């Protein structure tokens, strides 16, 4: 799950991890040293500690290698917005509604379905230029092949997009 932090409820410090260890993974495959230190601190006590291996994002690395030879040139007019439970700013929504140049791919976060109501409202007002179905039904890395810019309020998607040499706007 992307980069992790103490602010994410699943990775925050657990009291008495050994009493709950049957509910935790025994082995963690993590992206970086900072994540290793945090997981070690948060899931260990005198009686238990997880096995931790730093692998980077293996799926991402494999996808980059697979796509290296494709030499795809994405359209600079294609922009992906990855929602995170915070609807886009009003100025951006207004811009999208008036825009006739860009293609907007808007992707919902699976944990924040309430953004769908706002998205449906946007789609009722703008009937072309917004690609909701495609943005939510194809693999993220396949979507990266189409877009040049990725926008998000905060997300591990920004790190993945950067790995695909996409411009990222947070």
Give structural attributes:
elongated, 170 residues, four-stranded parallel β-sheet, alpha/beta, two-stranded parallel sheet
Query: How many helix segments?
Result: 8
Please compute the radius of gyration using only Cα atoms: 19 Å
How would the global form be characterised?
A: elongated
The number of strands is 6
Q: How large a portion of the residues is in β-strands, by DSSP E?
A: 5-15%
Unreliable stretches (pLDDT < 50, length at least 5) are none
SSE series? HEHEHEHEHHHEHE
Percent range of helical residues: 25-40%
Summed over residues and divided by their number, the pLDDT gives a mean of: 85
Most strands sheet = 4 strands, parallel
Straight-line N-to-C gap: 19 Å
- Spatial strand sequence of the major β-sheet: 4-3-5-6
Descriptive account of the structure:
With 170 residues, the protein is an alpha/beta fold. Helices cover 38% and strands 15% of the residues. The protein is built from eight helices and six strands, in the order αβαβαβαβαααβαβ. The protein has helices spanning 17-20, 33-42, 58-68, 90-98, 115-125, 132-137, 140-144, 156-163, and strands at 27-30, 51-54, 78-82, 103-107, 149-152, 167-169. The protein has a four-stranded parallel beta sheet. A two-stranded parallel sheet has the order 1-2. The longest helix has 11 residues, at 58-68. The mean pLDDT is 85.
């Amino acid at each position: 799950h992307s980069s992790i932090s103490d602010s994410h409820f699943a990775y925050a410090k657990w009291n008495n991890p050994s009493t709950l260890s049957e509910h935790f993974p025994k082995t963690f495959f993590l992206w970086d040293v900072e994540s290793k230190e945090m997981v070690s601190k948060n899931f260990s006590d005198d009686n238990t500690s997880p096995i931790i291996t730093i692998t980077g994002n293996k799926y991402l690395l494999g996808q980059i290698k697979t796509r290296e030879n494709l030499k795809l040139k994405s359209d600079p007019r294609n922009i992906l917005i990855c929602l995170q439970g915070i609807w886009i700013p009003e100025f951006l929504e207004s811009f999208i509604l008036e825009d006739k140049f860009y293609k907007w791919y808007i992707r919902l976060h699976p944990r924040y379905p309430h953004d769908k109501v706002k998205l449906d409202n946007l789609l009722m007002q703008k009937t072309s230029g917004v690609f909701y179905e495609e943005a939510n039904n194809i693999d993220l890395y396949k979507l990266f092949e189409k877009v040049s810019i990725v926008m998000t309020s905060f997300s591990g998607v920004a790190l993945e997009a950067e790995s695909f040499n996409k411009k990222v706007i947070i």
